[in-house]
Each structure stands twice: as C-alpha cells, then as structure tokens.
Amino acid sequence: MTAALRDLIPERFVANVRFNEPLSRHTSWHVGGPADAYFTPQSVDELGQFLAELPRRVPVHWLGLGSNVLIRDGGLRGVVVSLLSGLSHLEWQTDTVVHADGGVLCAVLARQCVKWNLGPAEFFAGIPGSVGGALAMNAGAWGGETWSQVIEVDVMNRAGARQTRLASAYQVGYRRVTPPVADEWFIGARFKFPEQPRPSPGTIDELLTRRRETQPIGSWSGGSTFTNPKNHFAAELIERSGLKGCRKGDAVVSEKHANFILNEGHATAADIEFLMSHVTAEVERLQGIHLVPEVRILGEVA
Ligand SMILES: Cc1cc2nc3c(=O)[nH]c(=O)nc-3n(C[C@H](O)[C@H](O)[C@H](O)COP(=O)(O)OP(=O)(O)OC[C@H]3O[C@@H](n4cnc5c(N)ncnc54)[C@H](O)[C@@H]3O)c2cc1C
User: Hey, what CATH topology would domain 215-298 get?
Assistant: First the structure.
C-alpha cells in the first residue's frame, strides 16, 4: 500500500507526508505499527484539498496525541491525519467564547483559559490529548466534560468539505459521542466559558498533584483502559480480582491504579491486547461484570 500511495498523493502535498511512519512514535503507550502515510496538513484548506483529491478507496484515520488508542503492531493501512503541527491555533473570540483548532493540546487550552480568566476549563489540564481527541471521546476529568462547554464544532468530511454544526446535533454521553452523520472529523470547536471564576494557575497544579498521587503519570500507558461500569469503578473491580501486577511481557497492570496498563519498555500492542482480554475475562469470572474498553483498538495485527 505504501508504494502505491506514493503515486496516489499529489506531489504538492508530499512535503507534509511521512511514508511508513511508525505509530509507536505517536501514541502514549509507545506501541503501534506503521501508517502507510502520515499527513500533517498546515491549514484547513490544504487538508480539504488533500482529502478531495485522495481517491475514496484509500482509508483515512485521524489521530490526536494518541493517548486513547491501542494501535496494533501491524499498523494502519491508508492515511493517518494529524492536526497537531499545523492546526493548533487558539483564539479568544468574544467575552465568553474561545475557538480552538482540533490540534490544540487540552493542557494549553486549560492554562490559556486561566490566563484569560475564563472557565471552567481547568479540567482540560488533566487530559493528555488534543481538542480533536477530546471532542471524539467527550473526555472529562474532575467533574468537567468536554461537550458541556461546546457551542459548535467545525467538521470536515471524507470529500474535504467543511461545515459547522451545533453541539445539539450530537448525542453525547460518558466517553461517547454519536455524530449526526458518519465519516466526519473535528477540525475545531467553539467553547463557551461563561463563569469567569478567576481561576488561578495554582488550581491546575493542585489538581495535577492530586492526580500524580493516585495515577502512574509519567509511565507509558493509555490512561484508563476500561470505562467505569454503572455504579462501579473499573479499577476497584480489577484490584478485587487480584490482577494488580499481572503481566504479559513488558505490559503490566499498574500497582498504583489498576485500570492503567503500563508498557514497561518493550511491550507490543499484542501483549497489551492480550492482557486486556485476560483482565476482562477474570473480572467477568470473579465479579460477574463485563468491562468495556475505553481505549480504541485500531489497525492490523502484525
Ligand atoms: C495518563 C493518561 C491520563 C488520562 N486521563 C484522562 C482523563 O482524566 N479523562 C479522560 O477523558 N481521558 C483521559 N485519558 C485518555 C485520553 O487522554 C483522552 O481520551 C483524550 O481525549 C484523547 O485525545 P487524543 O488527542 O490523544 O486522541 P487519540 O488518542 O489520538 O484519539 C482518540 C480517538 O479520537 C479520534 N480522533 C482524534 N482526533 C480526532 C479528530 N480531530 N476528529 C475526530 N476524531 C478524532 C481517533 O481516531 C480515536 O478514535 C488519559 C490518557 C492518559 C494516557
């Protein structure tokens, strides 16, 4: 596919395309095989033209900071689009409204809103992802959720056409967002931060310190591996099943927070996926509760 893709991508885009790009470089687990092509558009127009000209049979995937994906060792066929380097503009538009490109980091959004005296946005500091990924996942922390603050989103479809949609067009739940139509991706969003609570940068630091005390921050992981089942905490169920420290190769269930699976150095995606299946089976056997992955498993096995 890589060789064939080189011929399908018009020459003027090639400067922003890396072929056969290892996705382990772009995921927080540091695992994942290659993408045939990894495209970093430098503007919305460039992205639109690229998608319009790329033959429809070529699959397109979107990746933010790779903090909620398990990409298998065989990688992803087709093109992976990343907004991180080119679409990362953040703008305070009116008294209460901020526009963020999809490639803005959540941590940057949080800290900039504090500087602007806008909020509540501090919770974004706990999400090690991009605005695009946070919109796709309805990421949340410390009682805040991405979509509670969204007014409208800018989206682009597979044909490269852009559109703005109201937040009310989306069905949103816990780590779940159902769009009104398929095959559309987020290139930006307008957020309303109405309270102007004069938050201090210290608040963010305190929240992050609390997080460091309870989670293995700094280790290679995908964050919470499983969503919390209704009325339960996934971490508690995993711990009660005696699975802390359980490992497959260099993939291990964290001793500090049982819903985190760590890559201690040389784990493969297959190791992590195996461990996830084992944890799911054991929790079901011992607690009678079926865990559902929060991380999205993508790509081909090696
Ligand atoms: C240490 C750690 C702590 C974490 N803590 C939290 C937490 O407290 N709360 C929480 O909610 N999450 C948490 N996460 C998970 C993760 O950070 C969030 O889900 C985050 O929103 C993912 O953003 P991302 O840019 O990394 O997306 P990615 O992981 O790159 O992608 C996630 C999904 O979104 C899709 N996607 C990415 N960009 C776009 C786009 N522009 N348009 C459409 N779809 C897109 C991808 O295709 C993929 O399906 C944590 C992760 C780690 C590693």
Answer: 3.90.78
